[in-house]
Design a protein that fits this description.
Blueprint: H1 2-22, E1 42-43, E2 53-56, H2 60-71, E3 76-80, E4 93-94, H3 96-105, E5 117-119, E6 121-126, E7 129-134, E8 146-148, H4 151-163, E9 168-181, E10 184-192, E11 199-202, E12 205-208, H5 217-220, E13 226-237, E14 246-251, E15 256-261, E16 266-274, H6 285-294, H7 300-312, E17 316-322, E18 333-335, H8 350-365, H9 374-387, H10 397-411, H11 415-424, H12 431-450, H13 456-480, H14 482-486
Parallel strand pairs: 1-11, 2-3, 2-12, 3-9, 6-14, 12-18
Antiparallel strand pairs: 4-8, 5-8, 6-7, 9-10, 10-11, 13-16, 13-17, 14-15, 15-16
Helix pairs in contact: 1-12, 1-13, 2-4, 2-8, 3-8, 8-9, 10-12, 10-13, 12-13
Length: about 500
């Protein structure tokens, strides 16, 4: 036992050392698009009153934000490019932590009447073995669980909820740029649905939440977007999952595959294809890849519906974008949702993070009756950025050992399972917990290599495992910042009160 304890301490020290030497930070300045010179139509809220907040985008984040601020008495003008029902293959899984935020915002009825399915956890498959992981929601009301659904139905319910308030205006239009005067954002320039050019809308605060393909992101943050893989999506019809009300995650080679219900009769299948180029559908490469590489690794009970979905040929694909949150605090403007911060869609955390951010932003704005003091408001809202705080197959043995360590660590059960799953579920937002379990998985993996007797080969693989692990966690630390991630109470903005008039 003493030798094992010493080995764990040495491994942890090596990992910490590598984390420190890999950690570097850099920031770039943003440039706002000027809004000078062209004719415009000034849009105001309903009844001709002025607008307090402009919201760019009416997806999950924008609609929830508009309803939340409108309920607090703000006059909100929402501008959305397309108000028809979205047809997307992501944004279909809301974690239990996200459902808690719906309850807190008064939006829980938006998952009613859309055939949403309760999700209580996952089943993890690897090498014909499986382990069940259940969300630790015992401390909450029995209704607290994940929800899965058709994204478009959920978004339309959220939009209906927002415009049910008399002080929320929802308009179809495409925002092309922000209006900037002396370093302060005053509003937006947009084209209306009727084709009217260079319309302008003004408000003391503009919140940009126009999604993963935002054309305004680069003006407000350092938008270094990574595309590690692509999703290929299908819908399996009249398919029964082996474990009802659970997502099914297959750690295959080379693709991770995810199944989860999106209605009472449909199951979504997402195949994570490494790289940013997918096999061609036109010449049959996609069908061959799915049938010969992915299908043999799919559980027996899902194999036939999977093949049937392939034969229908209704494939959809999208790049999986990953972008750390690196904002440039700008007077009069704020980023939110996927426009601000993206993580790999396999985590299913996008909507939960956005709803959590809306709760934080609502609480920060409530004490401020007048939003027109842009400079002081900007300093105050820096608190928002403080408070808001995957594993793919590889021929590299060190990466394979990391995947195996992750699977075995979760299979142990107890805190080894409930801790990481509470993080995944959005029930535990503390970054320190994430680091603790990540380090534990790494130490667990290195320990498996070195016990009972280490070899030179396993020592080398263990060192590479630690190095690869640092490459996963360091970008997260770099993006959030050490103080904001581990010691948020030490950041001065955390203590700022509302700006005085």
């Amino acid at each position: 036992m003493a030798d094992q304890f010493l080995l764990g301490i040495v491994t942890a020290l090596i990992l910490v050392f590598l984390l420190l030497i890999r950690f570097r930070g850099c920031r770039r300045k943003a440039h706002l698009a000027p809004g000078n010179g062209s004719s415009c139509s000034i849009r105001a809220g309903k009844g001709g009153a002025g607008t307090d907040v402009i919201v760019v985008g009416a997806g999950v984040a924008g609609s929830a934000l508009a309803y939340t601020l409108g309920k607090d008495g703000r006059r909100v003008h929402v501008i959305e490019r397309d108000l028809s029902e979205p047809d997307r293959m992501v944004g279909e899984l809301l974690l239990p932590g996200g459902y808690l935020k719906l309850l807190e915002l008064g939006l829980e009825d938006c998952v009613d009447e859309i055939d949403a399915q309760r999700i209580v956890g996952y089943v993890l498959y690897k090498d014909e073995k499986s382990t069940q992981l259940t969300y630790p929601s015992e401390k909450h009301h029995e209704d607290v669980a994940g929800r899965s659904f058709r994204n478009g139905r959920f978004v339309q319910r959220m939009r209906e909820k927002a415009i049910s308030l008399h002080n929320v205006q929802l308009e179809q239009g495409t925002v092309t740029s922000l209006i900037e005067e002396n370093g302060t954002v005053k509003g937006v320039v947009y084209k209306t649905n009727s084709g009217e050019e260079q319309c302008k809308a003004f408000a003391p605060l503009t919140i940009v939440c126009d999604g993963a393909f935002s054309n305004l992101r680069r003006t407000l943050c350092s938008s270094k977007v990574d595309v590690p893989s692509c999703f290929v999506g299908m819908v399996l019809e009249k398919c029964q999952l082996s474990f009802p009300n659970r997502g099914h995650l297959i750690l295959g080679d080379p693709s991770v595959t995810l199944f989860y219900p999106i209605s009472s009769t449909e199951v979504r299948c997402l195949v994570d294809v490494p790289g940013n180029k997918i096999p061609s559908v036109a010449n049959g490469e996609m069908e061959n890849f799915l049938k010969t590489v992915v299908a043999p690794q799919v559980p027996t009970e899902l194999h036939d519906p999977f093949i049937e979905a392939i034969d229908k040929g209704s494939f959809r694909s999208m790049p999986n974008k990953s972008m750390p949150a690196a904002p440039h605090p700008t007077p009069g403007a704020l980023l939110l949702g996927d426009a601000f911060n993206m993580r790999h869609p396999l985590t299913g955390g996008g909507m939960t993070v956005a709803l959590s951010d809306i709760v934080v932003l609502r609480d920060l704005l409530r004490p401020i009756p007048d939003l027109h003091h842009a400079a002081s408001l900007c300093k105050y809202l820096e608190s928002f950025y403080t408070l808001r705080k995957v594993f793919r197959a590889s021929s590299d043995r060190a990466r394979r050992e990391m995947r195996q360590a992750y699977f075995d660590y979760l299979s142990v059960g107890g805190v080894n399972s409930s801790g990481p799953i509470s993080l995944l579920a959005g029930l535990n937002p503390r970054p320190v917990s994430l680091m603790a379990h990540f380090l534990a998985v790494v130490i667990y993996g290195v320990g498996r290599l070195l016990l009972p007797y280490p070899s030179l080969e396993n020592l080398w693989i263990g060192a590479r495992l630690i190095f690869n692990a640092s490459g996963i966690i360091c970008p997260l630390i770099k993006a959030e910042g050490i103080r904001k991630m581990f010691f948020p109470a030490t950041v001065p903005e955390y203590y700022r009160g509302p700006p005085s008039n």
